[in-house]
Design brief:
The protein has 260 residues and is an alpha/beta fold. The protein has two domains: 7-200, 2-enoyl-CoA Hydratase, Chain A, domain 1 (Alpha-Beta Complex); 204-251. It has ten helices and nine strands. It has helices at residues 31-46, 78-95, 111-118, 145-153, 155-163, 170-175, 188-200, 204-216, 222-237, 240-251, and strands at residues 7-12, 15-20, 52-57, 99-104, 107-109, 121-125, 129-131, 167-169, 181-183. It has a six-stranded mixed sheet, with helices on both faces. It is globular. The model has no long low-confidence stretch (mean pLDDT 92).
């Protein structure tokens, strides 16, 4: 799939940008967008020249959540719909060897908030906010949002967000450790791109290893993490990147990481 209708896909300086592109509906997730997102996430993963991916929304919002105008909630089996339309791209981001940065502009609601929270890093515009809109329409968070909220907020605050249609401003997200940075709304993509390019110049093997272990460390014992760290570190020590970086350190030159 090369021509997208509901997302924009571009690459600059080893950074891919996936922008939800249905601004007239505040980038609500329709079926076509979901399938295009599956393709775009896989496309970024397969491209060896891409090291970082930015996920954002075109226009004045990141996403209003699922597009409820596509039909009644009872028309389809959501279990099957989730399996085919949501899980592939959500797990694609979760399991990716690339670093994902969510650049959150304006409203980030429902499944949109799950998409942003699933990214590795989050930069928010000063007027952006996360909104768990599910309970307002008689639903519970999905798209892995229950797990993500619990990991980031703890039980009490996560449950409050889930059952009380909770909303968090950019400033609150920063204080709670959800957002890494807040920037001026009109500088969001400039700042996100600059940060992404800085990361892209780093060591991709080490970044992938750190992401992989941090994603599962909370379900492991301390001892098991120490052991897994040593196994991963042993592989990194033997990598061409690490050996070249050590030489660059002693020669006071800039290390160039090739992912080897």
């Amino acid at each position: 799939m090369s021509d997208y209708q509901n997302i924009n896909y571009s690459v600059t300086n080893r950074v891919a940008t996936i922008a939800l592109n249905s601004p007239e509906k505040l980038n609500a997730f329709n079926q076509k967008m979901r399938f295009e997102l599956i393709d775009a996430v896989q496309k970024a993963e397969d491209d060896v020249n891409i090291r970082v991916v930015i996920l954002t929304g075109e226009g004045k919002a990141f996403s209003a959540g699922a597009d409820l105008t596509e039909g009644s909630l009872g028309d389809v089996c959501f279990v099957e719909q989730c399996k085919t339309e949501y899980t592939p791209w959500l797990m694609g981001i979760h399991n990716s060897k690339k670093i994902y940065i969510a650049a959150v502009n304006g409203a980030c609601a429902g499944i949109g908030s799950a998409a942003a929270l699933n990214c590795d890093l989050i930069v928010m515009g000063e007027n952006a906010y996360l909104y768990q809109a599910f309970s307002a329409i008689g639903l519970m968070p999905d798209g892995g949002a229950v797990w993500l909220l619990l990991q980031k907020l703890g039980y009490q605050k996560a449950l409050e967000m889930a059952i009380d249609a909770g909303k968090l401003s950019a400033e609150e997200c920063l204080k709670l450790g959800i957002a890494n940075r807040i920037v001026a709304d009109d500088k969001l993509m400039i700042e996100a791109q600059a940060w992404a390019e800085k990361i892209a110049n780093g060591a991709p093997l080490a970044q992938a290893a750190a992401k992989q272990l941090m994603r599962k460390a909370s379900q492991m014992t301390y001892h098991d993490v120490v052991v897994e760290e040593s196994n991963m570190q042993n592989k990194l020590i033997k990598s061409q990147d690490a050996q070249n970086a050590v030489k660059a350190f002693f020669s006071k030159t800039t290390a160039v990481f090739e992912g080897k």
